[in-house]
Specification:
There is one protein chain. With about 375 residues, the protein is α/β, with parallel strands linked by helices. It has 3 domains: about 40 residues; about 200 residues, Rossmann fold (3-Layer(aba) Sandwich); about 90 residues, Rossmann fold. It is built from 12 helices and 13 strands. β1 and β2 form a beta hairpin. It starts with a strand and ends with a helix. The protein binds zinc ion. The site of zinc ion (ZN) has 8 residues, from loops.
Length: about 375
């Protein structure tokens, strides 16, 4: 689709489509489409779901770096612990590198190739780095990954196995992000990560959920939040399907963070802007002290009459265990959405009674031993 990049804060347009932040104010950019240029095939609704199906909704001509991501199962589950709730689990652990990140990587790496870059750089707590490293390797371009101090060791080993160069940063994700962005400018590398193009790839999680539910809109959708890219992508995808007249109402989005890293929950509760906090949680995949798409994430919650929930780490590990008993394997960050559902059921159970609830199970890359110990 035809697009322009527009600053999410000062609303100025970017003349250079390879930019990753607004030149004037440094904020994140948004892909703004000319929806009149949207061209869908007549049989669109009957095509099998996958990221490739949604190319008309992307800022690319074709998905050159599509590696079979998306098309993940939506499992309907009856569990004793969620009795009375119509529960659906969106299994993002079934993507090529076992997390939802692959949906965004296919679009970002396609853009890197289209712009003629031969290397990419990104900051990561683990899953992002694995995904980018895999996509870069398959597409034959170099990758440098800046890793935060709290990154999971097993994930770092996998990033190296994919052939990427790993640079360890002594501090948290936000410091890794600063280093990666500086590297991009000095080394002419294309920046991947939680930026506008990734967000476009990640919209497809909600497209697929709606298609799998035959456009019968769920009442609630629980989403783990680190950088809030997925949260804000889900919001954008919902708006697009509503604009097309394919849905006539919105699910309430419930953002879930760990008690040890909950800047979005705090800002939502105080109706304030997001403030940085030092992450301290076992859920490394969502250990982000200042979410890049935080402001957009808060807007998603307001627009959908959603909510933001914090859960203690021990309840996240308990959620991992409970899912595991059902044969559903997720890492801590990946099970945070389910932990949020159990938490909300504890104090607002009646609100969920008889409702259709989707939980996005975002990833499964931690070694089992750590979780079961
Ligand atoms: Zn700006």
């Amino acid at each position: 689709m035809d697009y322009r990049l527009r600053c999410s804060r000062c609303a100025s347009y970017s003349r250079d489509n390879t930019r990753f932040r607004c030149r004037s104010c440094g904020s994140v950019l948004e892909v703004e489409y000319n929806y009149r240029s949207l061209a869908l095939p007549d049989n669109f609704r009957s095509l099998r779901i996958s990221n490739g199906k949604y190319v008309p909704f992307f800022p690319v001509e074709s998905l050159r770096a599509g590696l079979g991501e998306g098309g993940t199962q939506l499992l309907q589950r009856h569990m004793r612990i969620t009795k009375g709730i119509k529960l659906y689990l969106k299994m993002e652990t079934k993507n090529p590198t076992r997390s939802f990140k692959d949906r965004g990587s296919s679009v970002e790496i396609t853009k890197a190739l289209d712009f003629g870059f031969d290397r990419v750089v990104c900051a990561s707590t683990g899953n992002m780095g694995m995904s980018i490293a895999h996509y870069a390797k398959v597409m034959g371009i170099g990758a440098t990954i800046f890793i935060s101090a709290n990154a999971n060791k097993a994930k770092v080993a996998k990033i190296r196995k994919y052939g990427a160069r790993v640079v360890r940063v002594d501090k948290d994700f936000n410091e890794a992000l600063r280093k990666a962005e500086a590297f991009a400018l000095s080394e002419s590398a294309f920046v991947c990560g939680d930026y506008h193009f990734r967000k476009e790839g990640q919209k497809t999680v909600i497209y697929e959920i709606l298609e799998q539910m035959r456009y019968d809109v769920p009442d609630f959708i629980f989403v783990p939040v680190g950088n809030a890219t997925l949260l804000s992508a889900i919001h954008k995808g919902l708006m697009e399907f509503r604009m097309l007249g394919w849905i006539d109402r919105l699910p309430r989005i419930i953002a879930v963070q760990s008690e040890g890293c909950d800047p979005l929950v705090r800002a939502y509760g105080r109706k304030s802007r997001i403030s940085y906090m030092v992450p301290n949680t076992v859920a490394d995949a969502i250990a982000v002290g200042y979410p890049t798409f935080g402001t957009q994430g808060l807007m998603a919650l307001r627009d959908t009459r959603g909510d933001a929930i914090r859960v203690p780490d021990h309840k996240i590990t308990e959620a991992v265990r409970l899912l595991g008993k059902e044969g559903i394997f997720a890492e801590t960050g990946g099970a945070a959405g389910f932990a949020g559902l159990l938490e909300m059921r504890g104090w607002k159970g009646r609100l969920l009674e008889g409702k259709k609830v989707v939980v996005v199970v975002t990833g499964n890359n931690e070694p089992r031993g750590r979780i079961w110990s």
